[in-house]
DNA sequence: CGGGGGATTACCT
DNA sequence: GGTAATCCCCCGA
C-alpha cells in the first residue's frame, strides 16, 4: 500500500523523549503515530500538538497533583496518557518530563498516512480526508486508540511513535494558545504545522477558524 | 455523597 | 453561534 511515510521517519528511542515538554511539543510535529491494530496498520503524521506543564499551568490535569486518572502523566517520558473527555471522547497524550513530574503533549491532529479505509470505518462518519484525524477526539477514534492504551510504552507498540528524520523548522511551526480551556488559556503552548489542511478547525490565537464549509 | 465542570464533537438555526 | 450528548473526576460538605 502507501508506505512512503516510512522513509521520512526512524524508530523512536527513549532518549528522544528527554527534551523539555515545550520542545517535545514542537519536535512531535512531523512524527508519525502508528497503531498496529486488529483492523491493520493505522497511521498518521502529527500536525498539531499542545503542551501541558507541571508548573504554572492551571489547565494541566497534573496541576492538582497525582490522581487515579492522571497517574500516567507522572510516568516516564514516552508513555501514553489516554483519558476520557466529556464522557465520550478519548484524548491521546505523549508523556514528557522527568519520571515523577506530571507533564505531557496532547496530540490534536494528524495527517492520515496509512489505513485510511479502516479509519473511515472507525469514524463511522463520512468526511473529507483532511477532517479524518482533525481534533483530539476524532484522531483517537480513527486510530482505534482506547483507554486500555493509557500507560503503554510508545517505543514498544501496539501504539508506536516514529521519529521524523528532519524536524519542522521554527518558521514551519505556528505557535498559538491552547483550545477549549478556561484556565491558563493565554499561554502560547499550541503548535501547528503552518497552514496544514489537516489541523483541527478550532482556532486559538494565531490560527483563524477555518470552518466555512461543511462536509 | 452531591454537583459542577470539563484538553470535544456534531448537528441545529 | 448555540447546545445536546454523556460520564467520570474531583472538590467541598
Shape, principal axes of CA atoms: globular
Quaternary structure type: single chain
Helix content: 10-25%
Q: Could you state the order of secondary-structure elements as H and E?
A: EHEEEEEHHEEE
> How many alpha or pi helices?
3
The main pleated sheet reads as:
9 strands, antiparallel
Residue share in β-strands: 25-35%
Rounded radius of gyration (Å): 16 Å
The helix-and-strand class reads: mainly beta
**Which runs of at least 5 residues are low in confidence (pLDDT < 50)?**
206-215
Kindly report how far apart the N and C termini lie: 26 Å
- β-strand number: 9
Mean pLDDT: 92
Structural account:
There is one protein chain. By secondary structure, the protein is mainly beta. The chain is built from three helices and nine strands, in the order E-H-E-E-E-E-E-H-H-E-E-E. It has helices at residues 21-27, 116-123, 136-143, and strands at residues 9-11, 32-37, 40-52, 80-85, 89-95, 104-114, 159-164, 173-176, 190-193. Helix 2 crosses helix 3. It is globular, with a radius of gyration of 16 Å. Mean pLDDT is 92; it is low at 206-215. It binds a DNA duplex (13 and 13 nucleotides) through strand 4, strand 5 and helix 3.
Quickly describe the structure.
The protein is mainly beta and 215 residues long.
What's the layout of helices and strands?
Blueprint: E1 9-11, H1 21-27, E2 32-37, E3 40-52, E4 80-85, E5 89-95, E6 104-114, H2 116-123, H3 136-143, E7 159-164, E8 173-176, E9 190-193
The protein binds a DNA duplex (13 and 13 nucleotides) through strand 4, strand 5 and helix 3.
Amino acid at each position: 500500500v502507501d508506505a512512503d511515510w516510512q522513509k521520512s521517519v526512524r524508530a523512536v528511542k527513549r532518549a528522544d523523549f528527554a527534551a523539555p515538554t515545550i520542545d517535545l511539543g514542537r519536535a512531535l510535529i512531523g512524527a508519525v503515530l502508528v497503531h498496529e491494530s486488529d483492523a491493520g496498520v493505522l497511521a498518521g503524521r502529527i500536525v498539531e500538538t499542545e503542551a501541558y506543564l507541571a508548573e504554572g499551568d492551571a489547565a494541566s490535569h497534573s496541576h492538582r497533583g497525582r490522581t487515579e486518572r492522571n497517574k500516567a502523566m507522572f510516568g516516564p517520558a514516552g508513555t501514553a496518557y489516554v483519558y476520557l473527555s466529556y464522557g465520550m471522547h478519548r484524548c491521546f497524550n505523549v508523556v514528557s518530563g522527568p519520571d515523577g513530574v506530571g507533564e505531557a503533549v496532547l496530540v490534536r491532529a494528524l495527517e492520515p498516512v496509512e489505513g485510511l479505509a479502516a479509519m473511515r470505518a472507525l469514524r463511522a462518519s463520512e468526511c473529507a480526508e483532511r477532517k479524518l484525524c482533525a481534533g483530539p477526539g476524532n484522531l483517537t477514534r480513527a486510530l482505534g486508540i482506547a483507554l486500555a492504551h493509557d500507560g503503554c510504552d510508545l517505543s514498544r507498540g501496539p501504539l508506536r511513535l516514529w521519529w521524523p528524520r528532519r524536524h519542522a523548522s521554527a518558521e514551519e511551526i505556528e505557535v498559538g494558545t491552547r483550545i477549549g480551556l478556561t484556565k491558563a488559556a493565554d499561554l502560547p503552548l499550541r503548535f501547528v504545522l503552518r497552514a496544514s489542511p489537516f489541523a483541527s478547525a478550532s482556532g486559538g490565537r494565531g490560527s483563524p477558524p477555518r470552518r466555512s464549509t461543511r462536509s
